[in-house]
UniProtKB/TrEMBL annotation:
One Pfam assignment: Shikimate_DH
SUPFAM superfamilies: Aminoacid dehydrogenase-like, N-terminal domain, NAD(P)-binding Rossmann-fold domains
Gene assigned in the entry: aroE
Name used for this protein in its record: Shikimate dehydrogenase
Family annotation (InterPro entries): Aminoacid_DH-like_N_sf, NAD(P)-bd_dom_sf, Shikimate_DH-bd_N, Shikimate_DH_fam, Shikm_DH/Glu-tRNA_Rdtase
Length: 263
């Protein structure tokens, strides 16, 4: 049991409307297991108060995670590392430096599941903030990336952003034959049944863990990465930035299942 004292370090996640967040459960478990004298809280901040509140949190905290809707807003307060600057989103802060551990986590998970030398065509559903990290991970793996999104205007804006970084993506209305299929939207059913194919399917949704998309892929013998794997891996990468050490991903996932925090 953590004993809070003068030396206890403060960390937390900053977002808006985040009662669902599992980040405190994950990080406080890690701190306990690694005997780190720290506590991790959720800071639920309204948009109109963000720019007044956030600088103070930066000053008093050892480290922070940033989630929806502030991953872009936080950039102005930090010195972004290369990947965060490229993606234009920060989700981890330490010593005023901004990182994107979503990108790092996806690079790790994709390479664990498949040989990236064998993937040529990748289709990403969604053009919101969550899509950026996986698009750059797939581009980094040498994949030709196609994006399908309900809002064509938002998709075109994303294409222009990617182009400014020297990469190219294609905006399409139907999925090509793909090696990797990714859902970054809140709705797993946004991915049509005929698009569930290839070597790997990724779904960012983690409630439930076994989404309809993940179930379809597994029934077809396709490798999968589910939302809880992404969430836990990016969290553990943040722990490594803050404290230079981390737990095994499977141990943390086992803890979440045992506590029935995920199903």
């Amino acid at each position: 049991m953590l004993e809070i004292n003068y030396n206890t370090k403060l960390l937390g996640v900053v977002g808006e409307n985040i009662p669902y967040t599992l980040s405190p459960a994950i990080h406080n478990y890690v701190f306990q297991k690694l005997e780190i004298n720290a506590v991790y809280l959720a800071f639920d901040i309204k948009k109109e108060k963000f720019h007044d509140t956030f600088p103070g949190l930066l000053n008093i905290s050892h480290g922070l995670n940033i989630t929806i809707p502030y991953k872009e807003d936080a950039l102005r307060y930090v010195r972004p590392e290369k990947e965060a600057e490229m993606i234009r989103a920060v989700n981890t802060i330490f010593e005023r430096r901004g990182y994107n551990t979503d990108y790092v986590a996806l690079n790790t998970l994709i390479r664990e599941k498949i040989d990236v030398n064998e993937i040529k065509v990748c289709t990403v559903f969604g053009a919101g903030g969550a899509s950026r990290a996986v698009i750059y991970s797939l581009l980094n793996a040498g994949c030709e990336v196609f994006v399908i999104n309900r809002s064509k205007e938002r998709a075109e804006k994303l294409r222009e952003e990617v182009s400014r970084n020297g990469f190219s993506i294609k905006i399409v209305e139907t999925c090509p034959k793909s090696d990797v299929v990714v859902n970054t939207t809140p709705d797993p059913n946004f991915v049509p049944d005929e698009c569930v194919e290839g070597k790997l399917v990724i779904d960012f949704v983690y409630k439930p863990v076994k989404t309809s998309l993940i179930v379809k892929a597994e029934k077809r013998g396709i490798n999968t990465i589910n939302g809880i794997e992404i969430l836990v891996e990016q969290a553990l990468e943040a722990d490594k930035i803050w404290f230079g050490k981390r737990l095994d991903r499977n141990e943390v996932m086992g803890y979440l299942y045992a506590r029935q925090l995920v199903r």
